Please model this.
Amino acid sequence: MNADNAASRDTAAASACPFCGIHCDDAVAVDGRFLVGCPVACRQRERAQNPQPRWDNKQLTAAEVFDLWRQAGTQDKVVSFGAAGMSLVQRLLDDPMTGRYVFVGDRERSVDVLMKSLIRESLVSATLGDVRQHADHVWLVGDIEAAFPRLGRWISPKAKIHKIKRLSESDLVRIANPRVDPLGSYLSILIGPGALGDDPNDSAVLAEMLLSRVRRHNASERSRVTLTWIDPIVSAASVYGWMTNRRLLTNRGEANIRIGSPVPGSLPVVMQLGGVDGGVQYSKGFLPAEIAGVNHDDVVTRGDGTITLPVRSEQLVDGDAGYEKTCIDWLREWALGGQTLGAGLPDA
Model:
């Protein structure tokens, strides 16, 4: 058996990787081995092993962490989704007790303002498959390679790549004047974290200008310019949209509870429930619960919104990744003011 056939055998029934928004479907073998050396996946996999309840930097029991959370006195009724699987989000939204909460999402600012502007401009973003098949010029804007190290597999080896730390007006001029600075027959602009800067007003204006230049270019030139980004919370946002017929709004600091792992652009919260613990940078407290693809099976959507993929939990981590209560259990108990869960509450 040659190497290609061996790789095919190893990945035939493999899980998609749960650790970033691309959800590579060639990275995890059926026995849980990683077949690639992605630094994000390897780092997150290490953190997912033996998750421990935490308050600040101190490991405690789950009951002690919950008591400290309650004693903090915050009125936490706004819950933000980080990276979470689709079935978990559906169960949360279905549960009567979670009707006491308002849900938002940890969407990175550049992606958020572009999505809002796209709706107004009636433009459609390109998929990673479009980039791979058509783009002969690619702009990598922001910290996209650090956030998604295997993005390169979606770019043709023949494509000319230009890296931009932050999009500027001079870059927009290049789109407006392709005869002065040729952009090839198909330019794909891949938007990463921080691509439009940190200032909310400036980033919104820059997004509007970018989309206006792209629309005018595509209307008057023979070449094409498209936009693509990876939204790590698209799984949660999709389920929320289907179940509520509303758009999942972006957390801008009003949430004090996070469900699932922090993602690029996540703001600090008081308590993280489930997911991979991002440390005190992202939450004061952490209570272990579900981690999609690590300790429970789930389904996720790739961050460009194109495909749903299974993430299976068998043998992905070496240590114990168990948990005492689910995210729904913790939210129920919090809604009851810390009372013990009693009879009459529906099962998760």
